[in-house]
Design brief:
Order of helices and strands: HHHEEEEEEEEE
Distance between the termini: 20 Å
Number of domains: 1
Strand order of the largest sheet: 3-4-8-7-6-5
Radius of gyration: 14 Å
Largest sheet: 6 strands, antiparallel
Length: about 150
């Protein structure tokens, strides 16, 4: 299993992301036909759902969380934790190359945005205030995810 740290996230956001396992590219019109209005707003227009309103905010079912746009598995429920922030939070992605990291200087602050590395779907942001051993908190919009039940 991978173990990314904050220094890895900063390196990716400054020097380039890992090569994705594959690429999925569609026009905004194609995405609009596949997604709900909220999913499109969050994933394609970099929106944010209101805290404590998302479907997976307090979900504890086992499985993997995949990108709502392209279906790429991104996070494992075993690495989900209660952050108290109002959004699903994870400590690691399932593979190093499924998440991309971009510096976000909007709203008068500097953060690191996380996107699906396969289809460029906006997922949320990452912060260096998560639990050990990684210290990472992937703060993810429920609207950008779908839970795959592992069997």
């Amino acid at each position: 299993m991978i173990m990314l740290k904050w220094i890895d996230v900063i390196r990716f956001s400054n020097k380039g992301n890992p090569t994705p396992p594959t690429r999925v590219e569609k026009s905004n019109e194609e995405w609009k036909k596949l997604l709900t209005i909220e999913q499109f707003q969050v994933t394609r227009l970099k929106g944010t759902e209101r805290p404590f309103t998302g479907e997976y905010c307090e979900a504890h079912e086992p499985g993997r969380y995949a990108c709502i746009c392209c279906g790429t598995p991104l996070f494992d429920s075993r690495l989900k934790f209660e952050s108290g922030t109002g959004w699903p939070s994870f400590t690691q992605p399932v593979e190093e190359n499924v998440v991309a990291y971009h510096k976000d200087s909007g709203y008068g602050m500097v953060r690191v945005e996380v996107l699906c590395n396969v289809c460029d779907s906006h997922l949320g942001h990452i912060f260096p205030d998560g639990p050990e051993p990684s210290g990472l908190r992937y703060c993810i919009n429920s609207a950008s995810l779908k839970l795959l039940n592992d069997e």
